[in-house]
Task: inverse folding
């Protein structure tokens, strides 16, 4: 029930004091200088209270965007080592742009405006941001708001769900031809850096990312069972790498010469951090005459070889550590020959030689 009390002050001004009493909810009060405003407020507020939205909106107005970003950094992002640096930079951008807005004021309209700002601005390298980069900025703050909705109960709805992300080009698929692979591995063998060749072989044979390979610790290597455990992956889940054949032989060789102080399989001089292979990698690629090829493309090469061997999208996702099949769809066209063989076998079985 709502009651509206008309009041006249000593100087003759009229105001309307409103009280809303609904069973099970605290009394809400407000004052207006016009009766129509008071009635409108009653109608809107009673509806929101009954729908369970009113008090969440009040809660959302108590907190600023910068406050939940800081809370997210301290309680969630701190445990995501593989993405922490990139996300921290992106969240700082959001905090700078809309940090002083209350959560209730972050609307789909505001987010789309900020998306357009990202599109017009140059990135940290002085070049325009790509659509993919802008989408990552959106995803980063969207994750913060998701936690604010689901776990912290500061919001009723995540406004990012109503914002359209930018269209991205198809994912890059650059993999080594047989000749390129032979030339590159030969140059890696000749490199002054003793860790380059084994690191490249591990990456190529397992599909692991660069930092997953270089971040391997001896404590997580099980040579007896021919595997290594990745605890800190991009998607936050543990994953095992099979250390078979040449990979196992190379890792065993490194184990036999490791120093007591070495924590990492590919250790720096002090043994406490991974070795930096950047310079030796770039030289090997250049000397091998392999054009437009990055270390991450070794991962694409692994996936491409598996696809061409007829492995399914599910099998590729399992090897690469993807939670969904979306990321491995880029390799689907490489398995066409295998699909053709399967179809031919089926037709032969059903229709014979016709």
Result:
């Amino acid at each position: 029930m709502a009651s509206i009390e008309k009041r006249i002050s000593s100087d003759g001004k009229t105001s309307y004091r409103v009280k809303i009493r609904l069973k099970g909810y605290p009394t809400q009060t407000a004052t207006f200088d016009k009766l129509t405003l008071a009635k409108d407020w009653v109608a809107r507020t009673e509806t929101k209270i009954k729908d369970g939205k009113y008090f969440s909106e009040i809660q959302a107005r108590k907190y600023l965007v910068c406050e939940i970003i800081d809370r997210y950094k301290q309680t969630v992002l701190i445990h995501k080592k593989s993405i922490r640096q990139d996300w921290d930079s992106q969240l700082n951008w959001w905090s700078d742009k809309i940090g002083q807005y209350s959560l209730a004021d972050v609307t789909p309209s505001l987010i789309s405006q900020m998306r357009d700002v990202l599109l017009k601005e140059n990135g940290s390298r002085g070049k325009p941001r790509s659509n993919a980069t802008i989408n990552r900025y959106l995803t980063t703050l969207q994750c913060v708001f998701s936690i604010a909705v689901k776990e912290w109960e500061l919001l009723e709805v995540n406004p990012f769900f109503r914002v359209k992300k930018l269209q991205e080009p198809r994912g890059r698929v650059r993999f080594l031809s047989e000749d390129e692979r032979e030339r590159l591995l030969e140059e890696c063998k000749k490199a002054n850096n003793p860790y380059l060749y084994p690191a490249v072989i591990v990456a190529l044979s397992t599909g692991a990312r660069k930092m997953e390979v270089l971040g391997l610790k001896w404590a997580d290597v099980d040579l007896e069972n021919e595997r290594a455990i990745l605890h800190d992956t991009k998607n936050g889940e543990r994953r095992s790498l099979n250390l078979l054949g040449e990979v196992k032989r190379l890792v065993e060789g490194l184990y036999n010469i490791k120093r007591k102080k070495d924590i990492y399989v590919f250790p720096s001089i002090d043994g406490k951090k991974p070795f930096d292979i950047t310079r030796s990698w770039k030289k090997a690629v250049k000397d091998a005459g392999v054009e437009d090829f990055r270390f991450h493309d070794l991962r694409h090469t692994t996936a491409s070889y598996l696809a061409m061997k007829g492995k399914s999208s599910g099998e590729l996702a399992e090897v690469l550590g993807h939670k969904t099949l979306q990321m491995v769809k880029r390799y689907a066209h490489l398995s066409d020959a295998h699909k053709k063989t399967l179809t031919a076998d089926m037709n032969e079985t059903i229709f014979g030689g016709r």
Notes: The radius of gyration is 29 Å. The chain has three domains: 2-51, 65-162, 178-340. The longest strand covers residues 2-8.
